[in-house]
Design brief:
Keywords: Aminotransferase, Pyridoxal phosphate, Pyruvate, Transferase. With about 450 residues, this protein is of the alpha/beta class. It has 14 helices and 16 strands.
Length: about 450
């Protein structure tokens, strides 16, 4: 295919493309930023300017970096051999990747394939709802979600969304979803800071008791709240959550769409917290963006709840995902996982994550606008405030200015965007698992200069 000139591509985009999360009025006076090439940690725009990507593709996805010929070649070879067949049939890539994935998830057993994080969570919700029908006369259908967590963009996943602005104007929502409070230590409502993990987790029990234990079938949580501000749970939180789930017979769904496949320094974020989920969902870093894939992973017990006499026409999981049958996803995911192993990227994530956190804390000492620094592995957030004593958040425009200043210096960082009424004040960092100290130093320098400019 002949390479078109830049002007014609930009013109075609502005005339025909409807961009994600964008008020297109802005394009009356400016052009979209085109990212056209990537290698390692770096990407280039259509004008040839290079950027260090500190957000792994903008949305926590390209975990092993750009330009991985090994993944691209494996996908090409597989697509030539067999591009697709419905996943009601078997395929070699899905079998091999499922086996490899389960080897990293003690206690888990089965993998259901689809093509996005939203869809993976929809499958989890449907599993809870159908088990309610199969085992509880349809009564245990409610699902608890947490304030500030995000689980997808469909109507039902937005029904489980703890971010006001993301769900505003899209109701009415699917009934049966109930919110519990967040677990932000920085914005804790408790006067006493002791045993916060238990206090935050006990809010789940309060919700279950209020709704009626015989009506609640599951709870969905991010191991670390991602788009809601990179919120790490306090010690003991997930242990207490597990106790409550066992007490009331709740299926525990852990949403690993962001944290999964190495982002936090373990294969999955929940593996830091001494918890055994019933269902784990994942997408984004599963194939590092080289192909679309998501997985809904369950224990063998959850799977067995759908095993019955074939004459029972309502007993099996009556769900389908068309592109869950595309072979590119599991092929890319298998090679992606192998690269993480071969290059010791979990170890690098721990090492570089510690270095990143140390450098961010140095920034906090220099800039009073930084109220809190938190995260795990190569996943970090800086919450910006007007005053550290009151913790009053800065306006979203302030975080946007810092992001813009970093862009001018050739570093792409992220931020909470149009999610809350007033807490869109966290800068987000999630560089690829291959990042080095020099990459981190470049990110820190850009942030330092950005704060100096914005706070001047």
């Amino acid at each position: 295919m002949q390479t078109p000139n830049s002007a014609s591509v930009i013109a075609a985009d502005k005339k025909h493309v409807w961009h994600h999360l964008t008020q297109h009025k802005i394009y009356e006076n400016t052009d979209p930023l085109f990212i056209v090439e990537g290698n390692g940690m770096r990407v280039k725009d259509i004008a040839g300017k290079e950027y260090l990507d500190a957000v792994s593709g903008g949305v926590w996805t390209v975990n092993v970096g750009y330009g991985r010929k090994k993944i691209a070649q494996a996908v090409s070879d597989q697509l030539t051999k067999l591009c697709y067949f419905a996943n009601s049939f078997g395929s070699i890539p899905t079998a091999l990747f499922a086996e490899k994935l389960i080897s990293k998830m003690p206690g888990m057993s089965r993998v259901y394939f689809s093509n996005s994080g939203s869809e993976a969570n929809e499958k989890a919700f449907k599993i809870v709802r159908q088990i309610s029908q199969l085992k509880h006369d349809g009564k245990k259908y409610k699902i608890v979600y947490r304030d500030r967590d995000y689980h997808g963009t469909t109507i039902s996943t937005l029904s489980a969304c703890g971010q006001f602005e993301r769900k505003n104007q899209y109701g009415p929502f699917t009934p049966g979803f109930v919110e519990m409070p967040h677990c932000s230590v920085y914005r804790s409502p408790y006067a006493d800071s002791t045993d916060l993990g238990k206090k935050f987790a006990d809010e789940l029990e309060k919700v279950v008791q209020k709704e009626g234990p015989d009506t609640v079938g599951g709870v969905i949580l991010e191991p670390i709240t991602a788009g809601g501000g990179v919120i790490t749970p306090p010690e003991g939180y997930f242990e207490r959550i597990t106790e409550i789930c066992k007490k009331y017979g709740l299926l525990l769904i852990i949403d690993e769409v962001v944290c999964g496949l190495g982002r936090t320094g373990k294969w999955f974020g929940y593996q830091h917290y001494n918890v055994q989920p019933d269902i784990v969902t994942m997408a984004k870093g599963v194939a590092s963006g080289y192909a679309a894939i998501s997985c809904t992973v369950t224990t063998e017990q959850v799977f067995k709840d759908f095993i019955a006499d074939p004459s029972d026409r309502d007993s099996y999981f009556r769900d389908i995902s068309t592109f869950g049958g595309c072979t590119a996803g599991p092929t890319a995911a298998l090679v992606n996982l192998e690269i993480i192993e071969e290059e010791n990227l979990l170890e690098n994530t721990v090492k570089m994550g510690d270095y990143l956190m140390g450098r961010l804390l140095e920034l906090k000492d220099k800039h009073a606008i930084i109220g809190d620094v938190r995260g795990k592995g190569l996943f970090a957030g800086l919450e910006l405030v007007k005053d550290r004593a009151t913790k009053e958040p800065v306006e979203e425009s302030v975080t946007a200015r810092v992001v813009g200043e970093c862009m001018k210096q050739g570093v792409i960082i992220g931020k909470t965007t149009r999610s809350f009424r007033e807490l869109n004040n966290t800068l987000c960092l999630s560089p690829a698992l291959i990042c080095t100290k020099s990459d981190i130093d470049e990110i820190i320098n850009a942030l330092d200069n950005g704060f100096k400019t914005v706070c001047a």
